[in-house]
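This section describes the prediction task in plain terms. A model, or a person checking by hand, is given the sequence of a single protein chain and must write out its three-dimensional structure as a string of tokens. No templates, partner chains or ligands are provided. The sample shown here is typical of the held-out split.
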Amino acid sequence: MRKILLVDDDKFFQRDLKTMVFPCMFATDEMKKALEIVEKESVDLVLLDLDLKKPGKDGIEILNAIRKNHRREDLPILILTRYPDMVNTPTIAVLANGVIGKPVNARKLKSTVEEVINNKLVFCNNTPKGFAQDIDVLLRTES
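The expected answer:
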């Protein structure tokens, strides 16, 4: 069974995804907790909402922090957003494995997750080691 980490501040979405799609899913809306789960659990993939609404939470910051974890820099990450056309940026293209628009189709989400995990469609496989050092440069140039 796949272990998925969902970082999303919608508790109903967390519950529905865990109940209907990914029973072995971890869910949080906090950066610190997300990073702990990535570090301690062997999750197969992260679903990350860029549209976090709570103060002090930034999806790009969380994405950046996960990618800087050199032990898990090849961890697949799929971005969830209500505005998929607006996140077409160099940072997202380099750091994430794909973007999925909300609302999500559960069947499509599950098949996309399986495809990414099974086929190892991970951008890091084609990227030199140590690419995480360049993330800050990307983030600064987009600001």
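For orientation: Helices lie at 11-20, 31-40, 59-67, 90-95, 106-119, 135-142.
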